[in-house]
Design a protein that fits this description.
This protein has helices at residues 2-26, 32-47, 101-106, 164-171, 178-181, and strands spanning 61-62, 70-80, 83-93, 112-120, 132-137, 153-154. By secondary structure, the chain is an alpha+beta fold. The protein has one domain (30-181). The chain has a 6-stranded antiparallel beta sheet. A hairpin with a 7-residue loop joins strand 1 (61-62) and strand 2 (70-80). It is globular and about 50 Å long. Mean pLDDT is 87; it is low at 17-22. Bound molecules: heme C. Heme C binds next to strand 3, strand 4, strand 5, helix 4 and helix 5. Residues 63-64, 66-67, 73, 88, 90, 116-118, 134-136, 152, 156, 163-164, 167-168, 171-172, 177-179 line the site of heme C. It comes from Hoeflea halophila. This is Cytochrome P460.
């Protein structure tokens, strides 16, 4: 009886393991190429002082979930591997207790929770979704992960009814940008 149960449990674990691996390989985001691209883009953003300890200050504002209570947004152009595109950088700030716009303006680093970005890639990268490259970084420049352990970079999460693309399709304008939809 115990043996049978153990056998079933092992089979289950192997099956789930295989499915997860399969997902990681076929996923439209979080693969090695996306992660590599995201890390090069982080360097470009460091050079332009869009991220990092030395980053340009902008007036924070009160935003909505899931992007943190206080946010800073910058819209600019960046060049990566010879391709130039629109780059939107959002710094998301959050704290356990109260956090005001003034707190973040005075100290933009202490409560920085994440940096979410959209970078317009070459045409055809993701034609149905306006060719955006999406990424969610932690303040140290590493990528945040979804509950399945996939790193959040690339076409996040194409084909899913949750995640960057799904919500921006609902919240954003034709270009999936909330900045230009208003
Ligand atoms: C549940 C909905 C939702 C999800 C999921 C979401 N966003 Fe957003 N995003 C918004 C809203 C709404 C705004 C406008 C600002 C605000 O009110 O918070 C926004 C704004 C932004 C902006 C500023 C530019 C703009 O369009 O205004 C960036 C960049 C951004 N999101 C990136 C991302 C990335 C990257 C992800 C995935 C890791 C993501 N978002 C997931 C709703 C969402």
């Amino acid at each position: 009886m115990y043996k049978q149960t153990a056998f079933i449990l092992i089979c289950g674990a192997v099956l789930i393991g295989t499915m997860t691996l399969g997902n990681a390989q076929n996923a439209p985001f979080g693969n090695a190429e996306d992660v590599d691209y995201a890390s090069k883009l982080w360097q470009v953003m460091m050079d332009q002082k869009l991220v990092g300890d030395d980053s340009i200050k902008v007036r924070p504002f009160e935003g909505n979930e899931p992007h943190g209570t206080i946010q800073e947004v910058l819209a600019t152009t960046a060049t990566m591997d010879g391709h130039s595109g629109r780059l939107l950088v959002k710094r998301n700030h959050g704290a356990e207790g109260e956090l005001s716009v003034e707190d973040v303006y005075d100290d933009p680093l202490s409560n920085l929770a994440a940096i979410t970005i959209m970078f317009k890639r070459e045409s055809g990268y993701d034609a149905e979704n306006q060719d955006w490259f999406w990424a969610k970084y932690l303040p140290d420049g590493t990528l945040d992960k979804n509950p399945n352990g996939l790193q959040l970079a690339g076409r996040v999460a194409k084909g899913s009814d949750a995640g960057c693309i799904a919500c921006h399709t609902a919240a954003g304008g034709e270009d999936l940008e909330t900045l230009t939809s208003k």
